Amino acid sequence: MSNIEPIRPKWKGTMTDRERFNRQMHYQSVDRCFNMEFGYWQENFTTWPLFVEHGIKNNHMADLFFNFDRITHVGGRIWLNPPFPNKVIAVEGNKQICMNSDGLTAEVPLDDHSTIPHYVKSSIVTPGDWKKVKEERFRRDDPARKIAVDELVKRHPPTRDYPLGIHCGSMIGKIRDLLTFEGLAYACYDYPDMVEDMVETVCQLVEDALDQVLGRIDFDFASGWEDICFKSGPIVTVDFFKAVVVPRYKRIGKKLKEAGIDIWYVDCDGDVRPILPYMLEAGINCLFPYEVNSCTHPALLLAEYGKDLRIMGGVDKMALLQGPEAIKAYLETLVPLVERGGYIPFCDHRCPPDVKQEDYLYYLDLKEEMFGMK
Question: Is pLDDT above 90 for 109?
Fold first, then answer.
């Protein structure tokens, strides 16, 4: 993939991507804004002529194609292993019934277009189910959980010019993926000890991975995935989050802090405001990719929490859908945030395929004009 010919020149700059990212996330002066995007729906790669004609088939290739600043992260095997087998169980009309790698049975479109699957059954319902899956797929002594640290050091040397993060997984979002939304809601009341043991188990796997790499590699940030919010707030109660999730995040945060890592972003869609104070308390101090319509304009949260909070994302995808005038009007509201620091603008989730290709290119051009080096 390194032979991809970029369609755009890299934004001009006097700093390395690594220096720029670190300074911007610490509210220090930079040559220009860090330039990145979160990516695109799979349909974009088959419907945008620019992607089709140049053979761009995934988000990694698109990052190279658009010549964005480089940012990456690494991590260990911190989830179930082996995964459940992906298989088609049945075909019914225009949908197929499948089992995914988390052991969920789901209905998905037969044409495989991107949509949220309708989950109909979990492999884990009772504590007995969890005991079996834990013993088979969450073993801490699984040899596959050993990280090839020397190889990572060679691949990402201390002299690198891009920011590198360590992935810290998910304390409850991935458990939702195991149990389903409804299953997690019931389990928190019917089997609270089981749910807490699941959280503790995944926390231990993350800690085991961190113990292997921290001190060996000079990381610039930590990343995580905790997709547990929707437009009405979190799918677990705030009390549950405070009592069960936050203590585990504090343990992870302590390890990160001791290793000198003080930027920690977590990918959480939806309205994070009810749990944000407790995320900050645990050490998570950056939101990503920050969905605007499910929450609020990023300026309001950054004003409320000051320099305790950073945001990556927050460019309203609805503005991209509405064309150049809306795009320009929205980006103008972000100028003070970029100038302030602690904020990196990009589309507030994967860019959807109904955004016109020409409008997206206009957005990239305008972003460079407004936030690139003058």
Answer: no
